[in-house]
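Notes from the 1:1 (GR / supervisor)

We went over the backlog. Supervisor wanted to see one worked example end to end before approving the batch request, so GR pasted a single chain during the call. The sequence is below; no edits were made to it. Supervisor asked that the structure be written out right there so they could see what the output format looks like.
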Amino acid sequence: MTPRSPFSRAVLVLAALVAALVASSSSAAAPPCAEAILADWLDDSRIDRVYALDCYEAAIDAIPGDLRDYTDAADVIARAFQDRSGRRLERGLEGPVPTSPTPGVVPPVDASSSSSVPVPILVLGAMSLTLLGAGGVGYLSRRRRESGRLDS
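Structure output shown during the call:
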């Protein structure tokens, strides 16, 4: 066995590091079927083909953050899974789950529920009534001025 120079040792260590990085990045990447489901969704916002059932959950996990935040891709893929399998795709909540409400903090209002007060409609109604009242006052004051001119 021949002694190795420091340069050849550095090259071997660098090659081993590159190989380890490539192996770890390929194992963390989504499987090809998940990428195929995402490509199918990107085509027309629907899942038109049938895929293996384990690919649907992998596809949901592989959705980039911006698509997850601004699109319904996860919902569409979960519905496609449900259509293909006949069962729901069990997904956990994302983010921390509050254990109890913090005292003194008002919880956010769910404006999408049917029992909530339609605040925009109330504001528009109040503005409409204010404008109608101002118009009525202007009309009555003009009539009063015109009737005062006719009497004299």
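Supervisor's comment: The mean pLDDT is 77.
Batch request approved.
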